Amino acid sequence: MAEERVASSEVNLVLLNSALTQLMRRIRAVDERQGVGRARLAALAVLRFGGACSASELAEREMVSRVTMHHILTGLERDGLIRRSPDPNDGRRQHVLLTARGRATIDRAHRARIAYLQELAGAIEPEQLAVACEVLDALRNAASRA
User: Fold this and answer.
1) List of E strands, the chain
2) Is the pLDDT of residue 3 over 90?
3) What is the pTM of this model?
4) Were 87 and a residue from 30, 73, 75, 93 both cysteine, which residue would form a disulfide, CB within 3.0 to 4.6 Å?
5) Residue 63 to residue 4: CA distance in whole angstroms
6) Are 53 and 114 in contact (CB under 8 A)?
């Protein structure tokens, strides 16, 4: 009986992996239609939903090197999507902030993702969707602790 549960659990994890992989591929296609690269959209999302932070903090949150984040921010700044402001408490640091154009860009991309997910969720019972959200939230929390 225990072996059957383990086998069933492994099958479920394989199915979960496959579903998440396919869903992220399709969401990536939605993101690509926004005309802003994925890494740039991800940085904008961190700033929009997490608030201003330093380039180092942004790199850490996105799990990229500081050099990579520097390149991402340089492009975002060049395109007028972010601005940098000196940290009043530490002259060596700068805060990265969204501009109005950056906020509009990430809000448009976020709406596109949500619209896509609403389209998919239309075929799912609300109770099933609620359970899926609980499970995904638990997995996200476990990943953040790992």
Assistant:
1) 53-54, 82-87, 90-98
2) no
3) 0.84
4) 93
5) 37
6) no
